[in-house]
UniProtKB/TrEMBL annotation, chains A, B:
This is Transcriptional regulator, TetR family. GO terms for molecular function: DNA-binding transcription factor activity; transcription cis-regulatory region binding. Residues 39-58 bind DNA. Keywords: DNA-binding, Transcription, Transcription regulation. Residues 16-76 form the HTH tetR-type domain. It holds the Pfam family TetR_C_43. SUPFAM superfamilies: Homeodomain-like, Tetracyclin repressor-like, C-terminal domain.
Amino acid sequence: MSVPKLWTETIDAHRAAVRDAAMDAMAALVAKHGLVAVTMSQIAEQAGIGRATLYKYFPDAQAVLTAWHERQIATHLDQLAAAVDPAAPAIARLEAALNTYARLQHHSARHHGGELAAHLHGSGHVHHAQQELRSFVRDLIAEAVRDGDLRDDVAADELANYCLHALAAAGTVPQDAVQRLVTVTLAGMGARPR
Amino acid sequence: MSVPKLWTETIDAHRAAVRDAAMDAMAALVAKHGLVAVTMSQIAEQAGIGRATLYKYFPDAQAVLTAWHERQIATHLDQLAAAVDPAAPAIARLEAALNTYARLQHHSARHHGGELAAHLHGSGHVHHAQQELRSFVRDLIAEAVRDGDLRDDVAADELANYCLHALAAAGTVPQDAVQRLVTVTLAGMGARPR
C-alpha cells in the first residue's frame, strides 16, 4: 500500500528511528565496554546523532537502557503469545509459552542483548513490560491451577515470579539443557511430566 | 594477642582497606545513580582516596564492581557452609543451605548490594566466587541424588544452576513468600515435601 504519509506520521517515524538508534548504540556499547562505561556522549556518537538530539529523547543513559529493555521484553511477549494455541488447555499453553521464553533467553544471551538484559534483570528499573510478561504467565498459571493441573498451595503470582527467574538460567546453559530446565521448572509448580 | 606487626602485614592491611573503600564506594554510587553513571573519579571521591591511588588497585570501574561482587559471594558462601549441620543427611543440608541462600538474597535486595548483585547476575563478569557457590550447591545435590532423595534424570550441575536462578526471585518477594519459593524450587528437583 503506498498511502502518502501525513507529516505527523513522518515525524513519528523519525522520532522512533532516533530512539531505536540510541537504544542499539547502548546495547553495542555495553557489549563492548560493559555497562559502567556508557555515557550519553558515547551513545550519541555510536548512534550517529548529536548529543543535543539524544537529550531531546532521553534524559540520561539509564533512560536509554530502560527503553531498550522495555522494547526487548515487548518483542518477547509477542513471540510468547504467538507460540500459544488458544484452543489448547491452559497447562499446554503454559508449557508452550515457557518453552518459547526459555529459548528466547537462551538465544538472546548469545548476543549482546543477553548480557544487557542479565544486568538489568530484577534491577527495579524495568516496570511496565516486565509486569506485562509476568501477568501473561501468571494468568496461564492461574487457569492451569483451576484445571487442577498445577499446585494450589502457592499464589499464581509467586509461581510466575519463580518461573521467570528459574528460566533465566536458560541464558547460561547449552542448547540441549534448555528443555530439561523447563521440565524441572514446571515440576516445581506441581506439573505432571507429559 | 598483641604481636607487633611486620611491615609487610601493615602494607597488606592498608591495601585491603583501600580496596574495600573502593568497593563500598562503588556500591553506594550504584545505589544512588545506577550502574551507568559510575566512573573511577566518582569511586575515588566517594572512597576518599586519590584517583592515582585507586588506579594502583583497580584498572577500571568494572574491576571494582567485579571485586565487590566476589567479596559479596564469598561472604554468602561462608554463611551457607555455617548453616549446614555436617551430621545431617544431604537433603537436609541442601534444604538448610538453600533456605539460607534465599534469605540472604531477600535481605541483600533490601540494601544497595542487592541491586548491584542483580545487575551483575549472570553477566559473565563474575567467575571464581560464583563458581565456588555453584559447586557447593552441586555437591550437596549430587549427594542427595545418590541417597535417592532427588530426581536423577537431570545432571546435578544443571539442577544447581536452576536452583540459584530460581532462588534469585527471593530478592523480589515479601518475607513470607521466601519459604514457599524454596519449597517450590526443591519440588522442581523432585524433593518430597517434608
